[in-house]
Amino acid sequence: MTDDAYLFLTDDTATPLGVPPTSLGDLAFLETPAVRAWLDAHGVTVTSPRLRLVPPEETAAIAQDAERLPVPLSDEELSRLRHHGAPESRARVEERLLAYRECADGRDALLGQALAAGVPLERIVELTGEDPATVAAAAR
């Protein structure tokens, strides 16, 4: 497995492998001179239905004779790529996990603030569903 995502060209536009880069919104690598030159050399644009992008874990599935280019993705771009290419059931679970992460951000600080404001430990446990030991640890 490689650490890079790959852009590649396919002759079979019905292939389920990869996603069209334009379906992921803005991707920084698409504006780099290297990618622009590669696209120009192959006579395609970023909107070509032949152009696909795969995450690092799927690069082995690219046909051996396919034109390909490794491209760097930010963590956020890679997350979007993986989410977009996931089966619908997995994508829904991933959305819930992302929402959980966003809700859990700053959790300890909020628990500490609640305790400092005089909210009883039992009430915090009741409101959050957190374990009492977790709430108490946030006060330290």
Can you walk through the features of this model?
The chain is mainly alpha-helical. The chain is built from six helices and three strands. It folds into two domains: 5-100, no CATH class; 106-138. It has a three-stranded antiparallel beta sheet with strand order 2-1-3. Helix 4 crosses helix 6 (132-138). The mean pLDDT is 87. It has helices at residues 33-41, 75-85, 88-104, 107-116, 121-128, 132-138, and strands spanning 5-9, 51-54, 68-71. Helices cover 44% and strands 9% of the residues.
Q: What does this entry show, briefly?
A:
The chain has six helices and three strands; from the N terminus they run E-H-E-E-H-H-H-H-H. The chain has 140 residues and is mainly alpha-helical. Helix 4 packs across helix 6 (132-138).
Describe the secondary structure blueprint for this structure.
Blueprint: E1 5-9, H1 33-41, E2 51-54, E3 68-71, H2 75-85, H3 88-104, H4 107-116, H5 121-128, H6 132-138
Antiparallel strand pairs: 1-2, 1-3
Helix pairs in contact: 4-6
What's the gyration radius in Å? 22 Å
Which regions have little confidence, pLDDT < 50, spanning 5+ residues? none
- Bin the helical content: 40-55%
Order of strands in the sheet with most strands: 2-1-3
Distance between the termini: 42 Å
Q: Summarize the helix and strand pattern as letters.
A: EHEEHHHHH
Strand content: 5-15%
Domains, number: 2
Number of alpha- plus pi-helical segments? 6
| Residue-averaged pLDDT | 87
